[in-house]
Amino acid sequence: MATTLQKKPPGVVTPASPQLKRLNAESVTSIATSFLKRIGHRGGLKPKKVSLEEGIYTVEVEMKKFTAVIHVDAETQEITSYEIQPKGEESSIISFSPKTIISVVVIAAVINVALHFTFKFLGL
Fold it and tell me: In this structure, which of 33, 48, 52, 113 has its CB flanked by the most CB atoms within 10 Å?
């Protein structure tokens, strides 16, 4: 019965738990956007704000029709919570698209020409 013992080289230190890389705004944003992609929000992700309060990073990301708020723990690097809300439209009381304005102008011009020839025909 022979037993062999393998010794670790004296200069190699193996930690009991792996060291986590320290987070910064860029890495937290990457975590948040990759999370959103994994849950199905692939296109048009625009990170707007990252903040750190009491060991929790808060990342705000705008999407086409939604705004997402994701909370990431600074120590464990885990997403603790997230919230996806519809965007609040911040528009003025009267908002016209260029297409609407052109349509109104064309309709007004057609009515003006039609009335002009109608009145001319009637002799007024």
Answer: 33
Nearest-angstrom CA–CA distance, 109 and 35: 53
pLDDT for residue 112: 95
**pLDDT above 80: residue 29:** yes
Secondary structure in 3-state letters for the chain: CCCCCCCCCCCCCCCCCCCCCCCCHHHHHHHHHHHHHHCCCCCCCEEEEEEEECCEEEEEEECCCEEEEEEEECCCCCEEEEEEEECCCCCCCCCCCHHHHHHHHHHHHHHHHHHHHHHHHHCC
